[in-house]
C-alpha cells in the first residue's frame, strides 16, 4: 500500500533536509511552517526560480552564482567549530565532487556557447546539492524509510542474493536464519492481509497473546483497513499504549479460544535462551517469566525451580519464590545466579547447549564468561562454544581473539552471521587470510591480555548503547528510586527497568527515556551520573558534572595539540565524564582548560554538601538575574558561597532571600572580586 504523501513529506524533512540542509533547510522549514505547504513543494519552487535566474544571466554572473550556491551550505558547516567536527566526514567526501564540478564548469566556460554553458552550471549546481543532501553527517547514503510491502520485497531479494553468493564473498552480509523471528510461530494464527504481522508486532514490544488477538481482529477487517491497523500498532512508541493493548488484545484472544503452546507456558517466545529445556514448576506455572524479569539467568532459574519442587509445601514454595522475585539487590541476584546455576548443573540441567543446532543462540543478557583465559569475553555466543568451534575450523588463537572482538563490536545478527561463515569455511586459503587479518586485530587489541581486549570492546552491547546515548551505567537503581518516589505505575516501571538493564536497541532506550520524561524524570540530569554525590576524600562531594559541549570543546582543543598522545586524550575524556568535586574541578579541570585554551561555561558550582536540587538552584539564579544586572560568573560565585554554608537552614534562607530580593551592592562587590574560575 503506498504511503501517505504527508508521511513522505515529513520523512523528507527529517531524513534529508533537516540533517545537513544549512540555511536552505532553515528557510524551507520556516516557510513551510508559516504557510502549511509541504517542504518539497517550497523547495521545488526555489529550484525552478534558481534555474530561471542561472539560465537567463550572463555567463560570468551564472558562474559566480552557481559557485556561491555550491559553497554556501558546506561552508556554513565548515566555519562552525561545533558543526565542522560533526560533519567532518561529510565535508571530506563533498570537496572532491565539488572540485570536479568546478573543473568541468571552468573548461565549459571557454569552450561552450553561453546557452549551453548556463545549462551546465544548472546541472552541476543541482548535482552538487543532491550529493550534499543525500549523505548524512558520517558521509553515508541516506536510505529512505520503508513500509511493510517494500520491507517484504527487500527481504525476498536479499534471500535470493544470499543463495547466489559464496561464504567468502558475503562475510559481512547478514545471513537470515531459517528459524528467524520473521516466521510466524505455529501457535499464532496467520494474518491473511499482512503475512509478516507477527514480526512487526513482536518488534514493537507486544506479547504473544496480544499479537494473537490483533491478528484475529485484523483478519475480520478488509485488506486496506487491516494493513492500517497493523501499521498503527507496529509504529506505536508509547509503552503505556503498548501495555494497554497487551491486556486488551490478550483478553480478546483468550475469549476467542486462543491458548498458548503447552511447552512454553506464558513465557514470551523471545526469551528463549534455554527455555525449551527449562523445568516446569508444579507450584508456580509462570516462575520462569517472573524470575527472568527480576534479573536471574536461565541456569539459576532452572536450579531455583528444581529447589521449589523439592520443598514439598505449596505455601512455603510460594513464599520462597516471592522472596526471589522481589529481590532488588544486584549483589544478592549475582550470588544466587552462581549458587543455583551450580545446583542446576549438578542436577544435570544443560540448557540450550544440549541442542544440536549448528548455529548458536546469541544474546547479550546473562553473559557467562566460560572461555579460555587468553580470550576476550564473548557477548553474543558462549565463550567456550565460540572458541572450540573456531579452533576446530582451523583458526589460530590470536585470530580467534580478533574474531570475538569483532563480533562483540557488532550487533547479534551480524555476529551470528559471520560466526556461521567462519566455522563453515573449508577453503585453506580463506582460513589463512583470516588468520592474518584477524590475527592482526587480536594483537592490536592486546592479545593475550583479557582485560585489555575487553577494554578495547568497551563493555557489553547494552552498555555501549547506553554510553552512546549518555546514559550512566549505574543509573538503573537511581531511576528505580525516582519512579517509586513519583509513584509510577508498577507495570510501566518494570518495563522501563527491563529496557535499561538489558537494552535490545537504541530505539528502546530512547523510548524508555521519553516515558521517564513524561513522568517528570530526566535520566540525563547530573544526579543520575555514576558516583554523583560521593565524597572525594578531602571533605568535598562530587556534585559537578561537566557539560557535553564543554567536554567536547576541551577534547577538540586537546586533539589539535601534538603534545598529547591518543591514550592521554582517552584518559582525559574518561575523567571529564565523571562527577567531580569543587576541589577536583579547580585543581585539575580549570588548569587543564587553560592549558588547551578552552573556555568553560558557567554553572559549575555543584549542589554543595547539603545536596540542593540542581533545578532549584537554576531557578534562584534566574531570579537573581531578574533582580540584578550582573554577570553569570558573579551569580555562580554567590551560589557557591551559599550552598557551602555549614548550616543547611542558613544556606536555604540565604538562597530564599536572594531569590526574593536579589543581591545587595556589598554582596555584588564581594562576589565580583572573587576568583573568576570560568
From TrEMBL:
Residues 144-157, 234-254 have a biased composition (Basic and acidic residues). Residues 264-280 have a biased composition (Polar residues). Residues 351-360 have a biased composition (Low complexity). Residues 144-190, 223-281, 340-380, 428-447 are annotated as: Disordered. This is Uncharacterized protein. It comes from Kwoniella bestiolae CBS 10118.
Amino acid at each position: 500500500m503506498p504511503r501517505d504523501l504527508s508521511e513522505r513529506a515529513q520523512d523528507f524533512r527529517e531524513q534529508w533536509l533537516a540533517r545537513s540542509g544549512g540555511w536552505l533547510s532553515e528557510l524551507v522549514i520556516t516557510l513551510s511552517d508559516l504557510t502549511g505547504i509541504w517542504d518539497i513543494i517550497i523547495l521545488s519552487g526555489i529550484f525552478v526560480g534558481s534555474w530561471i535566474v542561472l539560465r537567463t544571466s550572463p555567463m560570468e554572473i551564472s558562474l559566480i552564482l552557481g559557485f556561491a550556491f555550491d559553497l554556501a551550505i558546506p561552508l556554513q558547516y565548515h566555519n562552525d567549530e561545533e558543526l565542522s567536527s560533526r560533519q567532518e566526514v561529510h565535508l571530506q567526501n563533498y570537496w572532491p565532487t565539488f572540485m570536479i564540478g568546478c573543473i568541468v564548469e571552468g573548461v565549459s566556460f571557454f569552450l561552450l556557447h553561453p546557452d549551453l554553458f548556463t545549462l551546465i552550471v544548472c546541472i552541476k549546481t543541482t548535482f552538487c546539492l543532491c550529493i550534499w543532501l543525500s549523505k548524512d553527517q558520517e558521509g553515508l547514503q541516506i536510505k529512505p524509510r520503508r513500509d511493510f510491502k517494500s520491507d517484504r520485497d527487500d527481504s525476498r531479494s536479499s534471500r535470493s542474493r544470499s543463495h547466489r553468493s559464496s561464504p567468502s564473498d558475503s562475510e559481512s552480509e547478514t545471513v537470515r536464519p531459517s528459524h528467524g523471528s520473521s516466521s510466524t510461530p505455529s501457535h499464532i494464527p496467520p494474518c491473511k492481509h499482512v503475512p509478516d504481522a507477527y514480526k512487526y508486532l513482536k518488534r514493537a514490544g507486544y506479547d504473544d497473546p496480544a499479537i494473537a488477538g490483533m491478528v484475529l481482529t485484523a483478519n475480520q477487517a478488509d485488506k486496506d483497513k487491516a494493513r492500517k491497523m497493523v501499521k498503527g500498532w507496529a509504529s506505536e512508541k508509547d509503552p503505556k499504549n503498548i501495555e494497554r493493548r497487551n491486556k486488551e488484545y490478550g483478553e480478546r484472544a483468550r475469549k476467542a479460544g486462543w491458548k498458548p503452546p503447552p511447552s512454553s507456558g506464558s513465557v514470551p517466545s523471545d526469551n528463549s535462551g534455554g527455555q525449551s529445556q527449562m523445568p516446569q514448576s508444579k507450584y508456580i506455572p509462570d516462575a520462569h517469566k517472573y524470575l527472568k524479569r527480576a534479573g536471574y539467568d536461565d541456569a539459576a532459574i532452572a536450579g531455583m525451580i528444581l529447589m521449589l519442587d523439592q520443598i514439598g509445601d505449596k505455601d512455603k514454595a510460594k513464599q520462597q519464590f516471592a522472596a526471589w522475585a522481589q529481590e532488588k539487590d544486584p549483589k544478592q541476584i549475582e550470588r544466587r545466579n552462581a549458587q543455583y546455576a551450580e545446583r542446576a548443573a549438578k542436577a544435570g540441567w544443560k540448557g540450550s547447549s544440549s541442542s544440536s543446532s549448528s548455529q548458536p543462540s546469541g544474546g547479550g543478557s546473562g553473559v557467562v564468561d566460560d572461555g579460555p583465559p587468553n580470550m576476550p569475553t564473548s557477548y553474543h555466543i558462549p565463550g567456550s562454544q565460540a572458541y572450540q568451534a573456531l579452533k576446530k575450523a582451523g583458526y589460530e588463537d590470536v585470530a580467534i581473539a580478533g574474531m570475538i572482538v569483532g563480533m562483540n563490536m557488532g550487533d547479534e545478527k551480524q555476529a551470528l552471521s559471520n560466526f556461521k561463515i567462519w566455522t563453515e569455511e573449508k577453503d585453506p586459503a580463506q582460513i589463512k587470510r583470516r588468520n592474518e587479518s584477524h590475527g592482526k586485530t587480536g594483537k592490536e587489541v592486546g592479545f593475550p591480555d583479557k582485560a585489555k581486549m575487553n577494554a578495547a570492546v568497551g563493555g557489553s552491547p547494552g552498555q555501549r548503547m547506553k554510553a552512546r546515548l549518555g546514559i550512566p551505567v549505574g543509573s538503573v537503581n537511581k531511576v528505580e528510586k525516582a519512579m517509586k518516589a513519583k509513584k509510577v505505575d508498577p507495570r510501566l516501571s518494570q518495563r522501563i527497568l527491563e529496557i535499561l538493564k538489558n537494552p535490545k536497541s537504541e530505539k528502546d532506550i530512547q523510548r524508555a527515556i521519553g516515558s521517564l520524561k513524561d513522568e517528570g524524570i530526566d535520566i540525563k540530569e547530573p544526579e543520575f551520573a555514576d558516583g554523583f554525590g560521593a565524597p572525594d576524600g578531602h571533605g568535598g562531594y562530587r556534585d559537578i558534572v561537566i557539560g557535553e559541549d564543554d567536554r567536547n570543546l576541551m577534547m577538540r582543543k586537546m586533539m589539535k595539540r601534538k603534545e598529547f598522545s591518543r591514550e592521554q586524550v582517552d584518559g582525559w575524556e574518561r575523567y571529564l565524564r565523571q562527577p567531580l568535586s569543587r576541589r577536583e574541578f579547580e585543581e585539575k579541570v580549570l588548569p587543564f582548560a587553560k592549558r588547551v585554551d578552552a573556555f568553560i561555561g558557567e554553572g559549575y558550582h555543584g549542589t554543595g554538601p547539603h545536596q540542593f536540587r540542581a533545578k532549584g538552584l537554576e531557578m534562584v539564579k534566574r531570579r537573581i538575574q531578574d533582580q540584578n544586572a550582573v554577570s553569570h560568573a558573579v551569580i555562580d560565585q554567590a551560589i557557591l558561597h551559599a550552598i557551602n554554608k555549614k548550616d543547611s537552614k542558613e544556606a536555604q534562607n540565604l538562597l530564599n532571600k536572594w531569590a526574593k530580593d536579589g543581591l545587595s551592592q556589598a554582596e555584588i562587590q564581594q562576589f565580583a572580586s572573587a576568583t573568576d574560575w570560568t
